[in-house]
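Thanks for the sequence, V.! I ran GNAT family N-acetyltransferase right away. Repeating your input here for the record:
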Amino acid sequence: MSNEAFDDRYELREFAPGTDDKGAPNAETEAWMQAVGLGFHETHPGEEAAGRMVEHFVEDGNTWLGAYVRRPAPGSVDETWPAGTFAWFRKPLSWGDGSSIDTQAISAVTVRPTERRRGILRRMMTHALERGVAEGYAVASLTASEGTIYRRFGFGSAIRERAVSVRRDRALPFLAPTSGVVSVVTPEWLAGGPGRAVFDRFDARTPGSMVRNAGTWPVALGLRTQDGEKAKDVRAAVHRPDGSDEVDGYVTWRVKENRDGDTVLEVVDLVYATDEAYLSLWEFLLSVDLNDVVKYNRSRLDDPIVAALGDNRAYDVDHEEDHVWLRVLDVEAVLASRPYAVDGSLTLAVTDALGFASGTYRLDVQEARGSVTKVADDVDVAGSDIQLDVADLGALLLGSVSPTTLASAGLVRAVDPAAPALLRTMLTPPRTPHGITYF
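Predicted structure:
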């Protein structure tokens, strides 16, 4: 759809969410939330829960965008609800060495089925990324409900995750002894401070970790359900190192019956500041009586539990999919912000259909830090070591995806195969990237 035709049919409105004098969502906020609920097949929360959600959106600093039909059909929700929704806010991304970079975190992207293929998503995305550049973001981020939408806008899948199951009857004992002490606590005690303190330590040491939304915490810590109601079935436990009172890991969980008749312990949240805490909390979960299977939906791809189990066939991968997607807006700034494993120099030719990151860049790394120089505004294939699309640069950023793998897939191009191998080594992260935050 041409810009003229789009503007004739729709009006884009950017606003901040807010509440009325009774603490409920104001009219514009309520209509936008209704549209998002329709798009994601979510029940609308009650007035109290909706007001609490808006407080969280305000705390996170949300900017909301809506595409509104100018001439809605009589009686249609288009009279007040936007036909397309979009949100963004600031969310730091950890490099795993204590440093981070602020990302323009994108969320709540929907388009009404009646308005598909009219350019709504492209217009909202372009508007938001232009605002992101103006606000100084070097990279945008998102977690996606579908895996085929965002590459065309320059996003690359930078972290994948697994949903796994471990059968209790074959899991224990572990091959090596664990350490520390695990204690059962109440979710309320965990929410009083220890939970967030552990997450802060996890976040600082884990590449790909992202600060959580305000509304995530009551659910992760077992206080509320996804619908905002008081949770009644979640338990919690913490790990402390031997001889210490400091908590360095926690888990929240619930137990349910599945359709196959198994009793399943479902991990709600598992956060660890040390590998010892991770192993000990898993050993605890596998020791809980009256359940058959422990399920965890946020496992990293090189989960050490596989190696620790007495029988590694007790561990099954139920599902694997993309998690964190990254979109580079400023190549120089984002490459200069991260740590590197080895020194080296490479010239990268980056294509970008939206124009934000197009150009040829020289990356020079010395003593684990990189400096970047834009050597050409255009894509100089002949003068570059590596050629790639901005989506693939985003996929490579954290070091979870290998340039040699993308070269084998035909997405990273180089005359000398040593160039992707050098880039892979340079980008090797201090630990395996692990994102446990959705937004």
